[in-house]
Design brief:
Layout: H1 2-8, H2 15-47, H3 52-100, H4 104-109, H5 112-134, H6 136-154, H7 156-203, H8 205-210, H9 214-239, H10 242-266, H11 272-314, E1 334-341, E2 352-359, E3 364-369, H12 375-380, E4 390-395, E5 398-399, H13 405-410, E6 412-415, E7 424-425, H14 426-430, H15 439-448, H16 452-455, E8 465-466, H17 475-487, E9 493-497, H18 505-518, E10 523-527, E11 539-544, E12 547-552, H19 554-560, H20 562-572
Helix pairs in contact: 1-11, 2-3, 2-6, 2-11, 3-5, 5-7, 5-11, 6-7, 6-11, 7-9, 7-10, 7-11, 10-11, 15-17, 19-20
Length: 577
């Protein structure tokens, strides 16, 4: 019930359409059930009696009933389509917006491919099930009940046939559906895996081709696709049993009803028109049962999809604003007080241990350390992409957990290791930093990031179209565009996470010089592998295995810190040796 309640919340503005659909369905069913009764009167009282006036009068009534039934059916279809499409659109909207509010920790819980599958395949399954529920799931039971009582009003003994056969049919169908549902739960997880393979292959197609791994990737796709095929084949083999079961029940009912009806007609206790009505009602009852079996199949498919959608909607972001957040960041000072952090939360393996740092506003801070020393983890705590496990991080003298999240992140610009550009022009990408930025602002930050020189070489200049992921620009160009985008935010804190690794040392030096001259009041954190990128920093932090090994200037660390000196010697003397 919790899942149904949560999903039904997405109906919202389409409630009217969702309510009108079953109303018109009920009208359609009532009219369809009335037609055989009128037809029986036409045969018994009109055709058998040779009363032409009666035939014309009842014929007109039949035409009116059929036209009204057609109108109700058309309107129910129209409103069902509107309600189900709107319901699916709202579900996608709710899921997408929910994901936008996730912290990095929440996003880590779901794979990208899994979220995409839930937004597409799972929502489509729920949409189809919703349409069947508000239309067919209303039509079939009402038709079944009305047709049954119509037969009961004609002949009670014939009605007993349906009372005996229908429970047997439902028992067999429920056994089939229960087994099918467990397979559907498994198959949707395999869909996630298939989507992950496709996404990974397409995003890394250049690597696949350069290593000539097409055959390997094709084989991986075939294996995953084959697993899905095998699961669906098993389900189809189960579901296909429902059709012969339905056929057996339909024809058994028709044969028994025909046999009993002929006995009553010969005995003079039933008229020919009643036999025609009973045959029509038999088909209506059996068609209702067939449709119900289809609904059960659809619900069996939709239930696992609904559970997967509710997982996204129920996931609560672990990073939230507190009751009275701070809406102003005073300056770019940063203070770490006995900070410990674990991706697994309390009790998990700690990536950062007992970090104590005090950085004044406007300082340039270099961070260096070996692979896995948690350099990126450290700076991601500043804009609160993750929350500390123990201790506190303060920005502008206020604990980051006390800020309004949007306010804090607007004052902290981060250029991550994996630079991401989106499809659109260079201007479109840069305006992620400030959507109201003028062309002059864009040119200014591009000069600071040393990006203007290559942009001016493009025929379309700042209107050059960037392909998805920035595949039509080089790694160094992508990095400089991302730096320019971050600068456009005019942040109080700028974090460069190894974001100049793809540019040459001369360009790197020019970027750092521009930072020092143009944004002196911005606190700058520079994670780098090259000593030359951070040697002019006000202070350099040496991280080792998640701990602060040393803090000092370039000259101080050369004298006192063996780790820093070893890195420096390997970079400056390695070539000579």
């Amino acid at each position: 019930m919790g899942m149904i309640k949560q999903l039904s919340g997405a109906v919202r503005e389409y409630k009217k359409d969702a309510i009108l659909t079953p109303v018109f369905v009920i009208g359609e069913v009532a009219l369809e059930v009335a037609v055989p009764l009128v037809m029986a009167k036409l045969i018994d009282n009109g055709i058998n009696m040779g009363d032409m006036n009666y035939i014309i009068k009842i014929g007109i009534v039949l035409i009116i009933l059929c036209m009204l039934s057609l109108l109700c059916g058309t309107l129910s279809g129209k409103y069902a389509a509107s309600a189900s499409a709107g319901f699916a659109a709202n579900l996608r909207h709710d899921m997408y917006y929910k994901v936008q509010n996730y912290s990095f920790k929440n996003i880590d819980k779901f794979s990208t491919a899994s979220i995409v599958t839930r937004l597409t395949t799972d929502v489509t399954n729920i949409q189809q099930a919703f349409m069947m529920i508000i239309r067919m799931a209303v039509r079939s039971p009402i038709m079944l009940i009305c047709a049954f009582f119509a037969v009961l009003s004609i002949n009670r003994r014939i009605a007993v046939i349906y009372i005996c056969i229908i429970p047997i049919l439902f028992l067999l169908l429920s056994l089939i559906m229960r087994r099918a549902q467990s397979i559907f739960k498994t198959v949707f997880k395999k869909y996630d895996n298939l989507n992950a393979i496709v996404q990974e292959n397409l995003s890394g197609i250049r690597v696949v081709k350069s290593f000539v791994r097409q055959d390997y990737e094709i084989e991986k796709f075939k294996d995953s696709s084959k697993e899905i095929y095998e699961d669906f084949s098993r389900v189809e083999k189960l579901l296909v049993l429902s059709s012969p079961l339905m056929q057996i029940c339909v024809y058994s009912c028709m044969l028994l009803a025909s046999w009993l009806s002929t006995k009553y007609i010969v005995g003079g206790t039933m008229l020919t028109g009643n036999l025609v009505s009973i045959m029509t009602y038999t088909m209506q009852i059996m068609m209702s049962l067939m449709i119900l079996s289809m609904i059960i199949v659809m619900i069996s498919m939709a239930k696992p999809s609904g559970e997967r959608i509710c997982e996204i909607l129920s996931e609560e972001p672990d990073i939230k604003d507190n009751a009275s957040p701070v809406y102003e960041v005073k300056d770019g000072s940063v203070k770490f007080s006995n900070v410990c952090f674990s991706y697994a939360g309390k009790g998990g393996k700690q990536s950062l241990k007992n970090i104590d740092l005090d950085i004044a506003s406007g300082e340039t801070v270099g961070i260096i350390g070996g692979t896995g020393s948690s350099k990126s983890t450290l700076v991601q705590l500043i804009p609160r992409l993750y929350d500390v496990t123990e201790g506190s991080v303060e920005v502008g003298g206020v604990d980051v957990r006390d800020y309004d999240i949007e306010t804090l992140r607007n004052e902290v610009a981060v250029v991550l290791q994996k630079n991401v550009l989106f499809s659109g022009t260079i201007k479109d990408n840069l305006r992620w930093g400030d959507e109201n930025a003028t062309d002059e602002d864009i040119v200014r930050v591009c000069k600071l990031a040393c990006a203007d020189e290559f942009i001016e070489s493009f025929p379309e200049k700042y209107d050059t179209y960037i392909e998805q992921g920035g595949t039509n620009v080089s790694g160094g160009q992508k990095q400089r565009l991302c730096i320019a985008r971050a600068l456009l935010k005019k942040p109080k804190i700028l974090i460069l996470d190894d974001s100049t690794s793809a540019v040459d040392t001369a360009t790197d030096a020019r970027i750092r010089k521009a930072f020092a001259e143009e944004i002196p009041n911005t606190t700058k954190f520079i994670i780098a592998q090259r000593i030359s990128s951070i040697q002019d920093a006000d202070k350099i932090i040496v991280l080792d295995n998640g701990r602060v090994n040393a803090v000092g200037t370039h000259e101080e660390l050369l004298k006192s810190n063996p780790i820093y000196r070893e890195v420096y010697d390997s970079q400056t003397k390695g070539g000579e040796e």
